[in-house]
Design a protein that fits this description.
The chain is α/β, with parallel strands linked by helices. It is built from twelve helices and seven strands. The model is unreliable at 257-270 (pLDDT under 50).
Length: 285
């Protein structure tokens, strides 16, 4: 079934993937960044956890989490995006260990997985492109559906209430070449995650100091913002006000449960069973 947002992204990308995320130096820094560390602290993942990134884009989250020893399924609506992530993974083979990465083309509005499967479901820069509240809640609820009871859903979105957001949208290529977006605040993100059925919802802002050095000519001084983010941490209200990106995390209600997927066969469920079984064996589908 066609997806309005998926087709919009496909048109923006013009049958191309994103920039490669397979540089080991970049991924080492990314693993140590708040993007990954906030998720790891909140989720408290066990080794070999099963993770889904629906709307994987460049694949940097999938690659980083797989390199930490988890089994990750990277899903995207656009085939060429998945091919780029595969190429990034191939470039890392032999240098990074513990990777278990599978691939699936699919639609976030109707994920091709049974309920209660994944320990963590996350994406960045995806949910905000559904402009109607009911549509966004349905997408988040679909992420919740495939998360196991007690598992975690994490959503990262651009900070839609930053004082410079309108200038970012006019001048930064990432905004100009993407579909229209909802302007999220931390409060709005927390509300959407709660409405979708998550509890213990936590929000935060990422890289507040750097946000002031994104536009020309100040981008030449971006290193100052990076230094301030590291050396002068801000209180949470200011982080959420000035951040480049907002992150929201919540847990699915219910007791943790093991879902025995290996015995399910047929159609899409059989495909998922194959992906997860091969990830368990440490091979790639």
């Amino acid at each position: 079934m066609p997806s309005k947002v998926g087709d919009a992204w496909a048109a923006c990308l013009c049958k191309k993937g994103y920039g490669a995320a397979g540089d080991p130096y970049f991924l080492l820094r990314f693993r140590a960044s708040p993007y990954i560390q906030i998720i790891l602290r909140y989720a408290s993942l066990s080794p070999n956890s099963l993770i889904l990134e629906p709307g994987c884009g460049s694949g940097k989250f999938s690659l980083a989490l797989a390199s930490l020893g988890h089994r990750v399924v990277a899903l995207d609506y656009v085939f060429e995006v998945l091919e780029e992530v595969k190429n990034s993974e191939k470039s890392l083979k032999g240098r990074w260990f513990g990777q278990g990465l599978g691939y699936c083309q699919g639609d976030l509005e109707s994920l091709p997985f049974p309920a209660n499967v994944f320990d963590l479901v996350l994406n960045e820069g995806v949910v905000e492109h559904w402009l109607e509240e009911a549509e966004r809640l349905a997408v988040i609820a679909e992420m919740v559906r495939v998360t196991r009871p007690g598992g975690v859903v994490a959503v990262l979105v651009p900070n839609g209430v930053h004082p410079l957001i309108r200038l970012w949208e006019k001048q930064l290529e990432g905004f100009r070449t993407s579909p229209p977006m909802t302007h999220y605040s931390a409060e709005m993100l927390k509300r959407d995650l709660s409405k979708a059925g998550l509890y213990d919802v936590y929000t935060d802002g990422i890289y507040p100091w750097r946000s002031w050095f994104r536009l020309r000519p100040w981008d030449r001084l971006y290193w100052i913002g990076a230094s301030l983010d590291r050396l002068v941490p801000l209180p949470k209200p200011l982080r959420e006000k000035w951040a480049i990106n907002l992150i929201g995390l919540g847990r699915k209600t219910g007791e943790p449960a093991h879902y025995e997927i290996a015995g399910r066969t047929g159609g899409l469920v059989g495909t998922v069973a194959r992906i997860t079984e091969e990830l368990t064996r440490g091979t790639n589908p």
